[in-house]
Design goal:
Strand content: over 45%
CATH architecture: 7 Propeller
Mean pLDDT: 87
Number of helices: 0
CATH class: Mainly Beta
CATH topology: Methylamine Dehydrogenase, Chain H
Low-confidence stretches: none
Radius of gyration: 13 Å
Number of domains: 1
Number of strands: 11
CATH superfamily: YVTN repeat-like/Quinoprotein amine dehydrogenase
Order of helices and strands: EEEEEEEEEEE
Length: about 120
């Protein structure tokens, strides 16, 4: 099954198997939510700063979607409600977020940037 927007290159993707949700982030700053069982798009999350999506990951319980963008911001989304619940900034705003991850229990969040730095937050 093909996913994407047709608007920009796909930068990242992630799954929540329990909910049947797939997130696909593109270079234009949009993250598209898909029902991976039916193949239908169920929503779009737009980067608040309009920056390209560089990385994304779902929390272990599947309720939060972390999206890292090109201006060194990471947004934690309640993807079901389509709302940002928290904004995290890496110290070097000149380097985009290249990776994001949650700890196994979901209490810590990490983001890495293109300069080789890693930032960790307790949630």
């Amino acid at each position: 099954m093909q996913r994407g927007s047709g608007r920009g290159s796909v930068q990242s993707a992630g799954l929540v198997v329990q909910a049947g949700v797939e997130g696909v982030g593109d270079a234009n700053g949009d993250t598209y939510l898909w029902n991976w069982v039916t193949g239908k798009r169920t929503g779009t999350l737009t980067d608040p700063d309009g920056m390209g999506v560089q990385a994304l990951a779902f929390s272990p319980d599947g309720t939060v979607l972390a999206v890292g963008d090109a201006d060194a911001s990471a947004y934690l989304w309640n993807w079901a409600a389509h709302t940002v619940t928290r904004t995290l900034h890496a110290a070097q705003e000149t380097h985009g977020v290249s990776s994001v991850a949650f700890s196994r229990n979901g209490t810590e969040f990490a983001a890495g940037d293109h300069a080789g730095s890693m930032f960790v937050w307790h949630l």
